[in-house]
Design goal:
It contains 16 helices and 19 strands. It is α/β, with parallel strands linked by helices. Strands 15-16-17-19-18 form a 5-stranded mixed barrel. Bound molecules: S-adenosylmethionine.
């Protein structure tokens, strides 16, 4: 989500005045920090990052320093109080206003703050994205109305709001014309997507996926992140009906203990979650399941933690993000008694990640010698002139092949398993 927002910030700025990206802050005319406040570390990092660019303003007083994203949304004026050299503060819903905020700052000379939540206005104002690769993110809904007791997102990004159906399809057709072959629908709870067609028919994520699959040139569809509470049978059936939907779903479970799920206000039990996975595997036997986990939520006993490990062994999650619980100001969980000591959180996280890595490695090993379809995205990051892409179940695969394969789906045979990627041979080469 933040990568997507950063690209939109660049698009918005670039439209008013052509810009060039630089990795050297000393050369920059504009420095924007796009921030995250989901966990405390990310929040504190912003202030230390700001401290590191502060000196650049004395040699270049015209330098614009901006802070966007969820820390900006949560801290607002406090950012200017702690770092008075910051020129603009804007939230995730006002990033399209950044050029006018900068202009105002230059004219009036006073720092500008706009962290309001104008309803979906952003998408009308932002220029059409110019993709650099054959894969693209498309935001279809924003915000969150779930109010999980640990999470700051509803307060920083606002309530759930969906983009108009036809507008998304038009964006997809435009991306396809520019060579995009794989689209990832983005949203805090992407399966909470609800809209209407121009003929006033109700549509949801399942409808959007079905219609998107009909757009010529779009070969693969992904979505992230979904919420178990709204993972209904229509969406599950889409995995059976819509072949362009990949063999991968990211469905955050957070914990395997019903007591902790209740305290987190997740709105489902472990059994309900397991049932969704069972139905998904029936619809798509090869599906790889990704998830998010929080360890050390207030009141989590060793038995609760063991329940999470049991769930991981049962489901055999493939990809995962796991975190130590981090109390966020203003969220109900931060006031709960029985906060878990840091040392316990650390050792639980380590144990959980070891198990998850073991399962991920087993899945990779099971892919050895299988034939996989890879959407070739570019050169391998290893710099060895190999080309690189992703399988339907989201594994990075590197292999030798000509550059004109970039943007196409190639059949390869997996030959080697590495920790974070796989190596393969092109199938036609084997046949030759
Ligand atoms: N909307 C998705 C859901 O809740 O199902 C996830 C979105 S959230 C921005 C991404 C992940 O950050 C969550 O799934 C959770 O694992 C983690 N997270 C959120 N708040 C957290 C907190 N206070 N402490 C630790 N991890 C947190």
């Amino acid at each position: 989500m933040n990568v997507y927002d950063s690209d939109r910030i660049f698009d918005a700025l670039n439209e008013t005045e052509p810009l060039e990206k630089t990795t050297d802050p000393g050369k920059a005319d504009v420095i924007i920090f796009n921030t995250c406040s989901v966990r405390e570390k990310a929040q504190e990092k912003v202030f230390s990052d700001l401290g590191r660019v502060r000196h650049l303003k004395s040699s270049k007083p015209s330098l614009i320093i901006g802070v966007g994203g969820c820390v900006a949304s949560q801290e607002g004026k406090e950012i200017i109080r702690r770092a008075p050299y910051v020129d603009v503060v804007f939230g995730p819903q006002t990033l399209h206003r950044l050029p006018s905020l900068i202009r105002k700052k230059q004219v009036i000379g006073k720092p500008q703050i706009d962290i309001s939540f104008p309803e979906i206005e952003k998408f009308d104002k932002l220029p059409m994205p110019k993709p650099e690769k054959c894969t693209a993110f498309v935001s279809i809904m924003e915000g969150c109305s779930k109010y999980c007791s640990f999470c700051v997102v509803p307060y920083t990004r606002g309530e759930e709001i969906s983009r108009p159906f036809e507008e998304i399809l038009i964006e997809l057709a435009g991306l396809s014309r520019q060579g995009v072959r794989e689209v990832t629908f983005l949203g805090q709870n992407v399966n909470a997507y609800r809209s209407q067609t121009e003929n006033h028919e109700q549509v949801d994520l399942a409808s959007l996926l079905e219609f998107s699959a009909e757009i010529p040139g779009i070969e693969r569809l992904r979505f992230t992140t979904s919420h178990p509470k709204e993972f209904d049978s229509r969406l599950i059936k889409t995995f059976d009906k819509t072949k362009k939907l990949v063999d991968h779903v990211h469905l955050p479970v957070q914990s395997g203990s019903d007591k902790i799920l209740r305290l987190m206000k997740r709105g489902y039990t472990r059994e309900q979650y397991e049932l969704i996975i069972k139905q998904l595997r029936k619809a798509r036997p090869n599906i790889s399941i990704g998830s998010d986990f929080i360890v050390g939520f207030p009141g989590e006993t060793d038995t609760d933690f063991q329940d999470t490990l049991k769930l991981i062994r049962n489901i055999k999650f493939d990809t995962s993000f796991s975190f130590m619980y981090s109390p966020r100001p203003g969220t109900p969980a931060s006031d709960l008694p029985d906060q878990v000591p840091l040392a316990t959180k650390k050792s639980r996280l380590q144990e959980l990640q070891l198990l998850l890595n073991e399962i991920r490695d087993d899945t990779s090993v099971s892919m050895l010698n299988t034939v996989q379809e890879v959407l070739v995205e570019g050169y391998s990051s290893k710099g060895n002139l190999e080309i690189s892409g992703r399988t339907s179940n989201n594994r990075v695969v590197n292999f030798i092949g000509p550059k004109n394969l970039i943007g196409t789906i190639e059949k390869v045979k997996i030959t080697e398993i590495m920790t974070n990627s796989l190596r393969a041979n092109r199938l036609i080469q084997n046949a030759a």
